[in-house]
Amino acid sequence: MRLLLVEDDDHVAAALSAILVRHGFQVVHARSGEEAIQALLPAEKEPFGVVLLDLGLPDQDGYEVCGKIRKRGNTPVIMVTARSDVRSRIHGLNLGADDYVVKPYDTGELLARIHAVARRKGTGGPSPAPGDDTALRLGGVRIELPTRRVSVAGVEVQLTRKEFDLLALLAQRPGVVFRREQIISEVWRTSWEGTGRTLEVHVASLRSKLRMPALIETVRGVGYRLVAPAASVQAP
Question: Which CDD domains does this entry report, sorted A to Z (predicted)?
Answer without folding.
Answer: REC_OmpR, trans_reg_C
